[in-house]
Amino acid sequence: KQALNGSKISFRLQLYRATLYNCPRIMSHDILNFVFLAFLTAGFISPSEQDDNLKISVYYETYCPDSINFVMNQLAPMMGEFNKYPDWLILELIPFGFAKETGHFKWSCQHGPKECAGNKLDACAINELVTKQNKPLYMRLVNFIYCTMAADNQVKAARQCAAQTGVNYRKLMKCYKGTEGDKLLEMYENITASLQPPLNWVPTAVFNDKYNETENNEAQTNLYGVVCSYMPDECK
Questions:
Q1: CATH superfamily of 47-235
Q2: Where does the record place a coiled coil (predicted)?
Q3: pLDDT per position as a tens digit, 22-42
Q4: Would you say 116 and 132 are in contact if contact means Cβ atoms under 8 Å apart?
Q5: Residue of 52, 134, 130 whose CA lies nearest to 95
Q6: Residue ranges of domains in the chain
């Protein structure tokens, strides 16, 4: 299945819709294993209102069924639709969720150690493709995460996905295996902790840094519609 517009990735993807296993703050430890695909957040500026940013922040976990469902069925299609406005796109991904710090640079994640690893991998990818770039490579980031999250083991898939999406695998893994990745994950822990009201569900979508329950609920099944409510002229 083709990842997104312009992507060279080609792989078979199984999608499991999360109708029974959601990701609130407290979850049962008896969690099913899923194969998922994830990506994360985007914001846009309408061409007619280029002084106004629409920022979308997505708080998520890399192995959470609802997070994966949201990324695949809402975020990725919306990103593909609005990629024609790359200069107006603001993308913020917060890969942490309800992880708990258990020691210095040590965390316990809802879906086990693999999720902590996936969160850190995403943090490093964001750092390489967005933070360190003069012009953020949002679509490349989305395609990379799309690819890794389609695999059972996201970290093991990173080499092939990096090659397919033009990501520097050596730099990515240097971050992931070193303290840089730990520091980034700690940063996302602090960002998550500062959210008001406190995070109680993932994925959570926040628009322009102001949480709105109605918008978040609508975004779970109609993210495109919420974005269009901010920039209706571009959705005609």
A1: Glutaredoxin (3.40.30.10)
A2: none
A3: 576 544 333 223 222 333 333
A4: no
A5: 130
A6: 47-235
